[in-house]
Amino acid sequence: MNMKIEKTFDINTLRNDMLRFARLQLRDDHLVEDVVQDAIVAALSGSQQFTGQAEIKTWIFAILRNKIIDVFRERSRHPTCSYSDDNRLDEEEDEFFNKQGFWYKEQRPTEWEHPEATFVADEFWRVFEACLTSLPENTARVFMMREFIGLDVAEICNELRISENNCWTILHRARMRLRSCLEKNWFNNEEPKC
Amino acid sequence: MLTCKQVTRIVSQAQERPLSFMERLKLRLHLMMCKGCRNYNKQMSFIRKTCCRLRGD
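^ Those are the sequences you sent over. The predicted structure of the assembly is below.
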């Protein structure tokens, strides 16, 4: 191992962050351990020079993302479930909107005060993870491919062989549900205003 | 005039593709009048930021 890495590098914290990140996306503890292990080995065996923890984290997460994409690719070759659940969106939206298409009063998004201040609270991350985990698995996978792995919609469509419209719908559903879950379970102190 | 339901779909798509001039116009008009959708719009950016944090950026 590179000496510079050893000196500046808190492997346990980083490994925990990686496990958390991978667990959200793969939902299989053995696979998660393997993927994180592989990513760490790949990162440390490279000849890359690092100047600090932040740089190592960026590098090692880039490797981890690639490992997770490989798993997704493998899975989409042997699909266990279908992504053609497009038509359920209208039904799902009935939970939030009335017949005219406007928010039900109790579903209307309230103002979140200084939301970014919550990044420092461990409890917020637990709630966020719980909300992600509560999404249907396919929905969560598409959302994470977009937001965590950083693929764009065209790439996701290609990987999962779904239409662009279907992909937008799935992402929209994920965001609606996440938002609502965060509001109920974290930012729930205020009454709806408008 | 867009409904809140249509606005939430467009706000989500705005993270994936450039909106047309008409879409932006209609969206702005709706957001001017609807606090609920204004909050929704801000919260979508917040969710994206949150994801960036988690992915180590």
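Chain B touches chain A at residues 3-6, 8-9, 12-13, 15-17, 34-37, 39-40, 42-44, 46-51, 53-57 (CB under 8 Å). The mean pLDDT of chain B is 93.

Shout if you want it in another format.
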